[in-house]
Amino acid sequence: MSATPTPAHPEGFTPTGTIATHADRRRVVFATVVGTTVEWYDFFIYAQAAALVFATVFFEPAGAGFAAILSFASVGISFLFRPLGAFLAGHLGDRYGRRVVLMLTLILMGVATTLVGLLPTYAAIGIAAPILLIFLRIVQGISAGGEWGGAVLMAVEHAPKTKRGLFGASPQIGVPLGMLLASAIMAIMTVIAPGDAFLEWGWRIPFLLSFVLILVGYYIRRRVEESPVFTEIAERREATKMPIVQLFRKHWLLVLIAALVFAGNNAVGYMTTGGYIQGYATNPEGPIGLERGPVLWAAAAASVVWLLSTWFAGWVSDRIGRRTTYIIGWLLMLPAIFALFPLVNRGDITSLTLALCLLAVGLGFTYGPQAALYTELFPASIRFSGVSISYAIGAILGGAFAPTIAQAIVQATGSTSGVTWYLTAMVLIGLTATLLLKDRSGIPLGPDHEAEQSVSPIYGLAKA
């Protein structure tokens, strides 16, 4: 096909001129939900195990307190490698398509997770055990860094203009679904393998289950067509040769602000998805000492609330705009943060569940619109790089070491109030970054509108 520009396609049409049917779009939504659920199940099952068993089976020689910090740090270290995954996936996704990247990241994550389930403990092979564990967590981080951008673009670039928030919520709800699945399976294993049996072999089963889930996800994803926006770019032979160079040369400030938006959400979210609250509530030497099973079910219940609020926020952002939806989310999150530890520290499972569910509402409102928001911020030719790298940097600034920071604050001060103020600061950073961005809901996404897309969405700037 000639590289000569062609007229913009009407909403609902693919680059070849055929109508994108309801069945096509439903298949895309289903595939993105299933794929991201499997990916994030893998990612979160590690965080659950880090909170519950890894300090004992991999880091115990460091001593009780420091072993817990090392265990949470192993959760966070993967975030440092998310940008590498985002760079690689962004380059491949902008050059060769969204679909191929999604297949690669799914396989990479599944293999790493399955191998964690087969790792010998420190007692069996010594220092090699935590080294191999951290290596596999790094592989998970590389995969997670590339997964999100591809899933988001497949969903949003297939969507009708008036339903991008709703379609974009489909990969987003895969995250709470992954958390729900991880929490539920871990909780079931505490019943099947209680006490010492859980430490000996029970925790491994959820990791080994990943192999089956990855086969399901792979089968579903390979049946989905490439994003229509990338198909048009490829047909015109207009793929950018060095998309990352173009991104940072023209849009570096936008990448930073978009990353800070996500950082606020991610820091708060990783109190549960990073396993901190679960570890804090079940620590037998801590102030609460609840049983593992009920705490995991509380996290699962909060995941349902997070899922519903994420879906609703995506839907409502199509009506009131991404920016307004985000602002509502930040305002909901602030009182939930101040209620979190007073409720958790009451020491009963009902209060813990209520605290996590309240937090989940604000998390959903600042997560549901993110896919559409990010997609509408960046030009088509460098969009995969833009959304992936912004997301990865935001994860480092936000959730990467949030559980580790929280653990260190509590151990240093003997109080959770410092954690509350830390989370409040992160939310205010996210709110400020949101206020700096213009709402671009409904902006054309195709390559015909590259000039319009390249105008900066940052208040006060005419060019990116």
From TrEMBL:
Keyword Membrane: yes
Membrane topology qualifier: Multi-pass membrane protein
Segments crossing the lipid bilayer: 65-88, 100-125, 131-156, 177-195, 201-220, 252-277, 297-317, 324-343, 349-368, 389-413, 419-437
Assigned keywords, A-Z: Cell membrane, Membrane, Transmembrane, Transmembrane helix, Transport
Major facilitator superfamily (MFS) profile domain ranges (all copies): 28-442
Database matches in InterPro entries: MFS, MFS_dom, MFS_trans_sf, Sugar_transporter_CS
Claim: Transport is one of the keywords in the record: yes
Domain of life: Bacteria
Compartment annotation: Cell membrane
Predominant place of localization: membrane
Designated name of the protein: MFS transporter
Highest classification ranks of the organism: Bacteria, Bacillati, Actinomycetota, Actinomycetes, Micrococcales
